[in-house]
């Protein structure tokens, strides 16, 4: 079940706070525990807190530590992006969001505020965040100060940006619309949005749009002389008291803010008297400009009044102050209770929230991004720590990966090799490896060596193996590591950094054996592309599989995809799509597809199909219209090793994709093979895959 919603906009002061507050009230009426998260907040003065977060936590009494409610400040995001650390931004946001997801029934995620420069960059970041969190979006666009053409253009741009990243938009809100234009705003949105996207139009509410006296004091760095208890007064409009009092009184409107030089006692007293008179509208406050204050006799007179609005003294002149007041954008604060209640009331009046909440809870994320996939791998490995043996314990890459795995507390590790040799290698590469947290075994000198040799002899004596041959085998790190798994002294093995694939796999085939009803050991790579994860198989083991073997590889690959959270849509790749192609190779793929359909009718599969038709939605619709796989395949089965190995390497090199694997399929217990050109990251990821396999997937 979906557990989150992302509220996004493409501009500042769009009114998305109204949607956040209204939706939070709605969600709390439907669920027991609702969390709140802001991936990116505005920069705040040291010691202060983000206002949005404080308002939501305080008003709804949410029990969430402040530091858990956001990931980065805006300047931190810009700095990390400039340093080429965009991946780190997303990883941290996913981690913090997932922590809340584990603790709450639902999470309301509020996008950034677009303060300052770089709003286009900031909008793109919000799209990427929503994509990686795998949650639907509500887009909020302000209609204030926009023509119909500008409003529509902004809405279409925002919708396309999320749609193109395959992020589901479930609603769009036109906010701050003139009351007479609400129906037209909804009609305009409905004109370009699909029916499944809800549309709402909310009017411009002056009482929410205008600043309070508290906001004005902060913006002008003013000093409050009177009326501290009424700083939440909302301004309706403002005007300068520069004319004679008799003329100025005629300009007053309800909740007017009076701006006048501090030595204009006539305007000050006249405005205060008008405020308590039934013949004149109420005023919201008075700003005294120029750093001037009324004489003591006037101050004493004011103190004696029974009803005093806020009176604020500022240093700057009337002209500057008037312009600054006009530029103040109103916000909602934690103690602005009346404003919050008005906001929620407006939301409930104009947004049909019950159907919206039902959509949220029934939403199923489409696909998994690479960052989500890698996060889930780490989380799953940590949930049930497994013991993995690394036979090539003296290899620098193995040792560097081992440190990272141990530091993250993901697995228990055994390194095979001489302790002195491993220690010297660690010193050589200046690796701060904690030897107390890793097991090191020299096979020949280990207490289990004789027992392992005898076990191997018993298992293989029918093949002509004698005890001398058995001891020779057990002195080999690949055989020793595999025997650890067989005897239950380890849960899985990763090798191949310094050994061939055959050297790694042969011991497993000899006595680990294959699973019941499996005759072919095969492999898959998890290809982490820009915005999706695909499964490629078989790219490492079987050179020229028969149709029967290809079908078995396909079923194993689909099961691996499902085990790692990917709903398999299988493409049986060939040089031809559909029924048009002829020849032995395409016929073999066609036959394998038929076998899979017979054995696993529950699987979504298409074949034969060309690579472009499998992954490109427009090509897929053109070549195989009506297919539920074409254009959206995520499990790609290659017809032979030559095609598969070259394709995965080409995709990896040309797109910068991360290839996690190969992960072997079909063995009773997990043994995985590394490329001799593997990186530290390859070792790290393959060990995690192996640990998850060992959990019994």
From TrEMBL:
Catalytic reaction equation(s):
acetyl-CoA + phosphate = acetyl phosphate + CoA
- Where is the DRTGG domain positioned along the sequence? 215-325
* Pathway annotation: Metabolic intermediate biosynthesis; acetyl-CoA biosynthesis; acetyl-CoA from acetate: step 2/2
One GO cellular component term of this record is:
cytoplasm
Q: Which CDD domains match?
A: DTBS (cd03109)
Tell me, what is one Gene Ontology molecular-function annotation carried by this entry?
A: phosphate acetyltransferase activity
Query: Which terms are listed as keywords in the entry?
Result: Acyltransferase, Cytoplasm, Transferase
Where in the numbering of this chain does the Phosphate acetyl/butaryl transferase domain appear?
372-691
Q: Which Pfam families does the entry mention?
A: AAA_26 (PF13500), DRTGG (PF07085), PTA_PTB (PF01515)
One GO term (biological process): acetyl-CoA biosynthetic process
The entry's localization annotation reads:
Cytoplasm
- Note the PANTHER family from the entry: PHOSPHATE ACETYLTRANSFERASE
Copy the domain comment. The N-terminal region seems to be important for proper quaternary structure. The C-terminal region contains the substrate-binding site.
Q: What does this protein do?
A: Involved in acetate metabolism.
Kindly state the subunit structure of this protein.
Homohexamer.
Q: What is this protein called?
A: Phosphate acetyltransferase
């Amino acid at each position: 079940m979906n557990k989150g919603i992302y509220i996004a906009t493409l501009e500042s002061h769009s009114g998305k706070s109204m949607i956040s507050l209204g939706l939070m009230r709605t969600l709390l009426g439907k669920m027991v525990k609702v969390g709140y998260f802001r991936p990116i907040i505005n920069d705040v003065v040291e010691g202060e807190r983000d206002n949005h977060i404080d308002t939501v936590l305080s008003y709804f009494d949410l029990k969430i530590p402040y530091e858990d409610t956001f990931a980065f400040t805006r300047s931190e995001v810009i700095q990390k992006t400039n340093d080429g650390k965009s991946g780190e931004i997303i990883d941290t946001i996913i981690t913090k969001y997932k922590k809340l997801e584990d603790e709450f029934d639902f999470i309301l995620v509020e996008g950034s505020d677009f303060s300052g420069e770089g709003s286009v960059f900031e909008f793109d970041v919000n799209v990427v965040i929503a994509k990686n969190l795998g949650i639907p979006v509500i887009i909020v666009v302000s209609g204030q100060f926009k023509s119909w053409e500008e409003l529509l253009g902004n809405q279409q741009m925002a919708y396309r940006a999320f749609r193109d990243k395959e992020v589901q938009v479930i609603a769009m809100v036109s906010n701050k619309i003139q009351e007479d234009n609400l129906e037209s705003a909804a009609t305009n949105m409905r004109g370009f949005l699909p029916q499944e996207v809800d549309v709402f139009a909310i009017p411009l509410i002056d009482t929410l749009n205008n600043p309070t006296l508290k906001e004005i004091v902060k913006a002008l760095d003013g000093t409050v002389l009177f009326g501290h208890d009424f700083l939440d007064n909302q301004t309706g409009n403002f005007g300068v008291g520069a004319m004679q009092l008799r003329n100025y009184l005629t300009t007053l409107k309800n909740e007017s803010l009076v701006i006048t030089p501090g030595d204009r006692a006539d305007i000050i007293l006249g405005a205060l008297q008008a405020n308590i008179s039934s013949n004149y509208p109420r005023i919201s406050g008075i700003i005294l400009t120029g750093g001037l204050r009324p004489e003591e006799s006037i101050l004493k007179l004011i103190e004696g009044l029974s009803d005093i609005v806020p009176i604020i003294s500022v240093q700057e002149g009337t002209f500057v102050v008037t312009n600054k007041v006009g530029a103040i954008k109103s916000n909602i604060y934690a103690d602005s209770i009346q404003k919050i209640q008005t906001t929620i009331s407006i939301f409930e009046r104009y947004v049909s929230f019950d159907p919206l909440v039902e959509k949220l809870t029934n939403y199923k994320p489409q696909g998994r991004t690479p960052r989500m996939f890698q996060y889930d791998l780490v989380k799953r490995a940590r949930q049930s720590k497994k013991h993995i043996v690394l036979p090539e314990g003296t290899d620098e890459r193995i040792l560097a990966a081992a440190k990272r795995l141990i530091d993250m507390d993901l697995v228990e590790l055994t390194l095979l090799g001489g302790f002195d040799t491993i220690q010297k290698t660690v010193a050589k590469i200046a690796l701060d490896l904690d030897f107390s947290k890793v097991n090191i075994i020299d096979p020949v000198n280990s207490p289990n060596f004789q027992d392992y040799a005898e076990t191997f002899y018993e298992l293989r004596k029918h093949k002509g193996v004698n005890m001398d041959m058995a001891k020779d085998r057990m002195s080999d790190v690949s055989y020793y590591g595999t025997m650890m798994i067989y005897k239950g002294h380890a849960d899985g093995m990763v090798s191949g950094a310094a050994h061939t694939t055959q050297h790694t796999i042969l011991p497993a085939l000899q006595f680990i054996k294959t699973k019941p009803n499996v005759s072919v050991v095969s492999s898959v790579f998890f290809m982490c592309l820009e915005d999706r994860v695909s499964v490629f198989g078989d790219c490492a083991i079987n050179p020229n599989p028969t149709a029967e073997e290809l079908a078995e590889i396909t079923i194993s690959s689909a099961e691996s995809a499902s085990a790692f959270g990917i709903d398999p849509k299988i493409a049986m790749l060939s040089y031809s799509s559909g029924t048009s192609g002829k020849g032995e190779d395409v016929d073999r793929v066609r036959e394998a597809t038929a076998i899979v359909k017979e054995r696993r009718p529950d699987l979504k599969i298409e074949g034969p199909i060309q690579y472009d038709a499998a992954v490109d939605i427009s090509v897929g619709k053109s070549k195989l219209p009506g297919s539920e796989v074409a254009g959206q395949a995520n499990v790609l089965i290659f017809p032979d090793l030559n095609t598969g190995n070259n394709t995965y390497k080409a995709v990896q090199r040309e797109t910068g994709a991360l290839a996690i694997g190969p992960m072997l399929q079909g063995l009773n217990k997990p043994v995985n093979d590394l490329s001799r050109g593997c990186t530290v990251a390859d070792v790290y990821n393959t060990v995690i895959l192996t640990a998850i396999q060992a959990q019994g997937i």
